[in-house]
Write a structure and sequence with these properties.
Pyridoxal 5'-phosphate binds at residues 117-118, 253, 318-319. The chain has 454 residues and is of the alpha/beta class. It has helices spanning 5-15, 23-26, 55-58, 67-77, 91-103, 117-134, 155-159, 164-167, 190-209, 235-245, 298-304, 324-339, 342-357, 396-406, 428-446; strands at 34-38, 41-44, 49-52, 108-114, 142-146, 178-180, 213-218, 222-223, 229-230, 249-253, 277-280, 292-297, 366-372, 375-383, 388-389, 409-410, 417-420. The strands form four sheets. A seven-stranded mixed β-sheet has the order 4-12-11-10-7-5-6, sandwiched between helices. A four-stranded mixed β-sheet has the order 1-2-3-16. The longest helix is centred in the middle third of the chain and has 20 residues, at 190-209. The structure holds pyridoxal-5'-phosphate (PLP). Residues 116-118, 121, 150-152, 219, 224-225, 253, 255-256, 281 line the site of pyridoxal-5'-phosphate (PLP).
Amino acid sequence: MLNNHDELAAKNKQFLWHPFTQMKDYLAEDPLIIARGEGVKLYDVNGRAYYDGFSSVWLNVHGHNVPQLNEAITRQLGQVAHSTLLGMANVPSILLAEQLVRIAPTGLTKVFYSDNGATAVEIALKMAFQYWQNRGIAGKHSFITMNNAYHGDTIGATSVGAIPLYHQVYKPLLFSPHIIPYPYPYRDGGEKAAVENTLERLEKLLDQHSHEIAAMIVEPVVQGAGGMIIMPDGCLKKIAEMLQAYDVLLIADEVATGFGRTGKMFACEHDEVVPDIMAVAKGITGGYLPVAATLVKEKIYDAFYADYEEQKTFFHGHSFTGNPLGCAVALANLRLMEERGLVADVAEKAEALEGLLAPLAEQPHVGEIRSKGLMAGIELVRDKQTKESYAWNDRIGVRVCQLAREKGLLTRPLGNVIVLIPPLASTIEELGEMVQILSESIWEVTTQKAVGRP
Ligand SMILES: *Cc1c(COP(=O)(O)O)cnc(C)c1O
C-alpha cells in the first residue's frame, strides 16, 4: 500500500476538494494524512500519534480499531454487504430498529433510516410538513428554528440553519423559517434573562403564527456548531410544553448530542422531553460507518398509514437506507455501550473534565468554558472584561488548533470557540493530557503580543 507522505500529499493536492475547507489555505500547509487509529489516537502516515480530540468530527465512541466493532462488520460482510429497504427488509436493520426504540425516549416507536445527519433532519422536516397535510390540516407550511442553529448541509437542513457564515450565500435558494434566539447566557445577561428572552419570543411567535407552523427544530441542550452553547436546565421542557399547547411539532436534532455524548443516552432526557420526531446520526455506529435514523411517535407514523389510493405514502428514500454493514456495527456499538455502562461513565467523567478545564478560566483570554457530558467548548475573547470577541480574521481558533496539532492533539475550532469532544471511552488520564495540550496551546497563541494587533 502506498503510504509515502510526499507522494500522497501531491495526489491529495491534485485530486481532492476538502469539506468546510478553503483550499487555498489548506494547500499552503503540509497536509495531515491519517493512516490508522488505535484507541483514542490517530496515527499519520509518518507514524506520528495524535489524540482524536474531536472524535473525528464528533462521531467516535469506543475509540478506533475496536475488535468487537471490527468483528461485527466482518461477520455481516460474510452474509451480505447491502440490500435495500425499499419494499423489503434485512436482518440487522430490523434488529437495530428494535434497539433504537428501546433506548429512545418512551413514545418514539418507529424508525426511518438514512445515512447522515443532514438527511435525518431533511426527513424530519418533510415528515412534519406532510403530517399536517395527511391529516387534512391546511396551511401549516413553515418552521421555527433557533439563532446559530446548524442542522446539516442539504438544502432543507440549510434552510433551518442560522449561522450566517455558512448559510447566507444560499438564502435565495432556501425556505425561510421563523428564527428565535437560542439562550446564550454568557452573552445574553445570564441564564435567567437568556431563557426568558427565548421563551417570550417563542410564545409571541406561536400566539400569532402557530396556525401556519408545522414544527420547531431544536438542538436539545447543547447547540453544537453554533459554539457549544448550553441551554439552561428546564428550558427545553418549557419549549416542548409551549409547542404542544399550540399544536406545533417538536423535532429534536440529536445528531451531535445522541448516544451518550452529553451524559444521557439522548440530551432530551435531561429535561424529560419526548420530541415528536428525533434525528440521530453521528455516534450511532460508534463512528464507524454512515448510518442515521429519524425516530417518530406513533401519531406521525399513523398519519401516513392509509389506503394506497389516498397517496399518503412517505415518498422518500436513499440508496443505502438501512445498510446492513452499518446497522450491524451500530448494534455492536450499542451492545458495547451497555456492557461497559458507558453512558453512566460519561456522566462521571464529565465532572472530571469540568475539573480539568476549570483552571483554564484563569487565562487572560478565556472568556467562558462550557461543557455538558464530554462535549466542551472554550470561548476565547480579546477582552475578558468587556467580552469583546476576537475578529473573525484573527483566526484565533484556527491558530490554537494548529498549535495543538503540533503538540499531538486534533480538533477543529468553531470560530473563537475551541472544541474538545473526545471519544466517550477516553480515560480521565487521557482527558487530562488532552486538556493540558489545549491549555498550553491557548496560552501560547493568545499571549503572543502580536495577536490580531496591526
Ligand atoms: C453534524 C450535525 C448535523 C449534520 O450531520 P452530517 O452527518 O454531517 O450530515 C446535523 N445536526 C447537528 C446538530 C450536527 O451536529
